[in-house]
Amino acid sequence: MGLEAKLTQDGFITTTIDAIVAWARKSSVWPMPMGISCCAIEMIAAADPKYDIARFGSEVMRFTPRQCDLMIVAGTVTYKMAQVVRRIYDQMPDPKWVIAMGACTSSGGMYRSYNVVQGIDQFLPVDVYTAGCPPRPENLLNALMTIQEKISKTRARDFQDIIPQKLELINK
Amino acid sequence: MDKIKKVYSDEKIYKKLLEDNNLTIEDALENEMVINMGPQHPATHGVLRLVLRLDGETVIKVVPELGYLHRGYEKMAEDMSFIEFIPHTDRLDYTATMCNNVAYVLAVEKLAGVEAPPRAQWIRMIIAELSRIAAHMIAIGTFAMDVGAVTMVMWTFRERERIQEIFDRIAGARFTTSYTRIGGVASDIDDEALKMIKHFLDTFEPGLKDMDDLMLHNRIFIERLEGIGVLTKEDAISLGVTGPNLRASGVEYDVRRAKPYLFYNQVDFKVPTYSEGDSLARYFLRGDEVRESVKILYQCLEKIPNGEVLANDPKKVLPHKTEIYTKMEELIHDFMIINHGINPPVGDTFFSAENPKGELGFYIVSNGTGYPWKMKIRSPSFCNLQAISKICEGAMISDVIAIIGSLDPVMGEADK
Amino acid sequence: MDIKDLVLQTLKENFTDSIIEITDFRNDLSITVKQEKLFELAKFLKENENLLFEMCKDVTAIDWATRKNRFTVVYHLYSFKLNFNLRLKSNLETEPYQIQSVTPIWQSANWYERETYDMYGIEFINHPDLRRMYMPEGFEYHPLRKDFPVLGIPESLPLPQKPE
Ligand code: SF4
Fold first, then answer.
1. Is residue C109, in this structure, part of any structural domain at all?
2. For the domain bounded by A29-152, which CATH number is listed?
3. Which of ligand 1's atoms lies nearest the C-alpha of A103?
4. What is the value of pTM for the model shown?
5. In a domain, C88, yes or no
6. Contacts of residue A48 in chain B, CB cutoff 8 Å?
7. Would you place residue B49 in the very low, low, confident or very high pLDDT band (cuts 50, 70, 90)?
8. Number of domains observed in the structure of chain C
9. CA of A42 to the centre of ligand 1 (A)
């Protein structure tokens, strides 16, 4: 961001809270690696020394949903697994984003069969779809950058009503 | 909501778990609990779910629950031609894609009575062994990561990444290769790729040594695994365990040796075995196997002949794409095979090959049409997983993780 | 003596009238046995000194989609001593489709039979724990039967609601 250069000049910057929050959010997206099948291996490959997801501030793969704000669904989601994916999604704190990695999660992919959900957008709101079977690690990084772009456009007040909404749901 | 509850009820699992197994609770402080591990758990290698019944930290009973990745392969196979199924084999054991490709086409070739030309068979051996190294790299890396050595996974993935690059060169895809064809392989392997393999092999050995130094001078690692999860020889056989897990229990059974396919009878390699049957033995064995694979690969590179890579059998083998575009006859054959399939004779065959995880078998029943009437996949991970409830009993809960890692199941294959 | 002959001879000596058919296709020996005798024969195969089929590699079934003789249960056995694969088959003639479980003989059959039960709805008598293997407990159908569509039956497996 060139922050250092600015700070040495005058010692201060002016910006909006929205911008700084969005900037902080986007540069430290913590993914929840929902590795289900083959795509998970490529997701790990994205974290390995060659592709190095750490360059984007997302190397902190947490296996607990409570500490994450991005869910990467990597792999074929079956009906049985859909319940689990959904429950984990519900456990993530707001605001949260979802990447549907691979053909399977986007549309069922090559599995037109009785037990495969034909696209996870039937039960989850998806932000970025990634094409490929499996998508190459570069493609996943691209998806991550798209998410970052999306996050950088958010304003803090976009998420204001989420908590009351949630409370209402719980009360119901 | 009610419907969801009705369909996905866990009642029977709990019932099974709480079946009395001579447990008497005398101490008031002793208590039992049931905990659920997975399907989303970093150590379960995907989506395995274990329901554990614990007494303090000791595991009394384990009930594995599968099916979270059941994609219905066997049903889909009945609905597609033999050739169409090749890409699906990549996704069975997705850590060793090439091995599955090879095993599947060999099974179909056995049924249809086709034989691939020698060069194709040597190529198949090369890719299968490379794939075996790649799979064992994942196995070793994730296993070490599960018991706390995160560095290892970076190192093994670095090596694996180099194999992926070779595959990228050979097959045009890093990961889901779909490289073999019935009667041969999709395209010839070029000198550049052979050079890459040679270079990889030459530089791989020192890397392997580094890994060994890292892990085996680490007392925590050794003590965490030694004597944990012992699988006796008798149990291993009767539970149907195959592959490295069986050999770590002292049975010298390797399909490449027992029923040689391809040209495995022309190369010289050892079948490493250990008699301890614990997690550490399974770890060592994978390392040894990788070294044997390197040995086999060197021999393959030496012995690979020149020649065709697709059999000349126009009724069963798809011709090269370039020929289809230029020659009439090939076009007709291509049309016939794609539309009507390869029509193997009526009958059923079982073929199994040695995969990194164990013995991968295909049982195909043909009724003479282009579609298999039934295809059963005998997946090694599924059979190996069956041993979990046996060897976890009486272990500590933290050992369960080491045990799963050492058995190295891949759920894509176990759930099919 | 050839291993195949050895196996066949030993079996014929003891089970002449229970063997219905013997086929040898592409060097795979396969023996069809009467449904009632299967357990006995399997036990014999495992325990006979000369054969020792110690490992059961696979159990599955075939749905022939006919009214009579609808299912065939298939067992793949392996003997370390002979280094030989043997296939046993048994036809299930009438409803209810039931057969004796071989789990008491080979522990590995436990999950294979559960899988077969899940996929075909064939019941294995005396199985220690006959539950579904892959599909959820409340699922009503058996997917690998030929009358089950590949795409499944709509609404048979519920999905969670989409949020918002
Ligand atoms: S998109 Fe392809 S690689 Fe990814 S999970 Fe689906 S089948 Fe596997």
1. yes
2. 3.40.50.12280
3. 1
4. 0.88
5. yes
6. 154, 157-158, 161
7. confident
8. 1
9. 10
Q: Cis before residue B372, ω within 30 degrees of 0? A: no
Mean per-residue pLDDT of chain C: 84
Average pLDDT over residues A91-99: 85
What is the rounded CA–CA span in Å between residue B47 and residue B68? 6
ipTM of the complex: 0.90
Say what the pLDDT of residue A2 is: 64
Ligand 1 center–CA A134 separation, angstroms? 5
Which residues on chain A are in Cβ contact (under 8 Å) with C149?
Answer: 114
- pLDDT per position as a tens digit, A13-26: 788 888 888 888 88
pLDDT at B149 over 70: yes
pLDDT of residue B395: 83
CATH number at residue C115: 3.30.460.80
- Tell me which of A76, A115, A130 to substitute to probe ligand 1's pocket, judged by most ligand atoms within 8 Å of the beta carbon: A76
Asked if residue C43 belongs to a domain, the reply is: yes
Taken in order of first residue, the domains within chain B and their CATH numbers are: 1-31 (no CATH), 75-414 (1.10.645.10)
Mean pLDDT of chain B: 84
% chain C with pLDDT above 90: 0
When comparing pLDDT for C15 and A126, which is higher?
Answer: A126
CB proximity list for A14: less than 8 A, separation 6 or greater: none
Closest CA to B360 of B132, B187, B143, B134: B132
B1, B3, B69: best mutation site toward chain A, by most A Cβ within 10 Å?
B69
What does the pLDDT read at residue A35?
Answer: 81
Domain boundaries, chain A: 29-152
- In percent, how much of chain B has pLDDT > 70? 95
Q: What subunits make at least 3 CB pairs under 8 angstroms with B?
A: A, C
Pocket residue to mutate for ligand 1, from A34, A36, A38, A43, most atoms within 8 A of Cβ: A38
Q: Which residues of A touch B46 (CB under 8 A)?
A: 35-37, 40, 75
Identify all chain A residues contacting C160, using CB atoms and an 8 Å cutoff: 82-83, 86, 123
What residue numbers bound the domain in which C103 lies? Answer: 3-125
pLDDT tens column, B262-286: 888 888 888 888 888 888 888 888 8
User: What pLDDT is stored for residue C139 in this prediction?
Assistant: 83
A contact test, residue of B37, B146, B157, B168 with most A CBs within 10 A:
B157
Q: Is residue C143 part of a domain?
A: no
